[in-house]
Amino acid sequence: MGASIKTADEIDKMRISGRLTAEVLEMIEPHVRVGVTTGELDRICHDFITGQQQAIPAPLDYNGFPRSICTSINDVVCHGIPSNTKKLKNGDIVNIDVTVIKDEYHGDSSIMVQVGNVAPHAQRLIEVTQECLYKALEIVKPGATLGDIGYIIAQHAHKNYYSVVREYCGHGIGKAFHEDPQVLHYGSQGAGMVLEPGMTFTIEPMINAGRRQTRLNQKDGWTVTTRDGRLSAQWEHTLGVTDNGCEVFTRRSNESL
User: Fold this and answer.
1) Inter-axis angle of helices 146-159 and 120-139, nearest 10
2) Is-contact 202 170, C-beta < 8 A?
3) Helix axes 8-28, 38-47, angle to 10 degrees
4) Is residue 45 a contact partner of residue 57, using CB atoms and an 8 Å limit?
5) What is the pLDDT of residue 2?
6) Has residue 1 got a pLDDT over 70?
7) What are the CA-CA distances from residue 30 to residues 34, 92, 221, 231 (Å)?
8) Over residues 75-83, mean pLDDT
9) DSSP class of residue 87?
10) For 203, phi and psi rounded to 5 degrees?
11) Is 257:109 a contact under the CB 8 Å cutoff?
12) Cystine design at 186: which of 154, 162, 198, 247 (Cβ 3.0–4.6 Å)?
């Protein structure tokens, strides 16, 4: 399957949903502190999205997912379910993943937040993971390939002695939460789909401090952890391919993308 090429009107709608997604992340970040429950973070985001933004939190009831955001702490790679009893502790690292639907179109982004005093090795994993995302965004333009994106991410992660999760990846996005193509975070230069203006997708590298293997929690059917129990980090943006590069729809105000 090929990627859908969005019209100018669709791109406008994705700009709006992307901006709203960025606003949720900027709003929630100061609330991420020692002692808060991830369930409380979920409630704050839900109320902000549905109330102030008059929008829809995409994860809620998506294939049965029970919450409005994902909160993935420490060794949780992705799809962590917010909990009313799980309190954040000093030294935790947490990924907050938000997807907003406005006028039927999706914006999807995630950030890493440090809770209290975080160990230098955890800070470094967060920084390198964000660099992986930024390096990938820099090379997105017509004529580049999906393989180029995966290659530059994996090269930077491996150079820093980290591993790249393979079971989960970025994806096309628009009216549907997940569209073609799949955007792998490893690959070969020049391989895979060639990018064209109007394609919209996410890049969301999941980088592990230890081995790349993951484990899915069979009880809840969602939570993915590193198999070796070591830390994982992730950053995500939604973007559109332009005539000469890319536009990051979910860019936050502190980013010069």
Assistant:
1) 150
2) yes
3) 140
4) yes
5) 77
6) no
7) 11, 15, 30, 22
8) 98
9) B
10) -120, 125
11) no
12) 154
